[in-house]
Amino acid sequence: MTSLKPWADVKVGDIIPVLALPPVSRLNLALYCGASGDHNPIHVDIDFVRTTGLPDVIAHGMLSMAWLGRLLTNWVPQTAIREYSVRFAAMTHTGEVISCTGEVTDKFEHAGEQRVRLSLTTANAEGQVKLSGEAVIALA
User: Fold this and answer.
1) What is the spatial distance between Cα 104 and Cα 9, in angstroms, rounded to a whole number?
2) pTM, two decimal places
3) Between helices 61-75 and 26-36, what is the axis angle to 10°?
C-alpha cells in the first residue's frame, strides 16, 4: 500500500497507481478455481469451451473483480473501502494482459468522513474494457 495524500490534496481527475498484471494464464484460472470453488467448465475445460464456439477458456468475472479489489487495497487499507461495485463488460481471454485503473470522480463528506468516489476499469492492452465499476473510499 502506498502512502496516501491528504484528502485536501486529492483532486477530481487524479489517477491512482495502476495495477498491471501478467498475461492471463490457464494456471491463473486453475488456481482461482481451487481458491473460489468455481469449477465452471468454461474456465478450465478447453474441449467444453470449443463446443460453445470460443477458442479457449475465459477468466472468471469474479477474478477480474478481485484484481480491482487489489488495485484498491494497494492504494488504501481494506477498512477504508465503503462501497465497491462492478459491471461485467466483456470476456477476459487467456493470454490477455490486463491493467486495472482508477480515477477520482468525486470528493464529498458523509457521516463525518471525507470520501472520494473512484471510477474503476480493467482493460486489455488494446484498451477494450472488460470490467467497469466504482468504489467509495474514506480518506479521513
Assistant:
1) 12
2) 0.90
3) 90
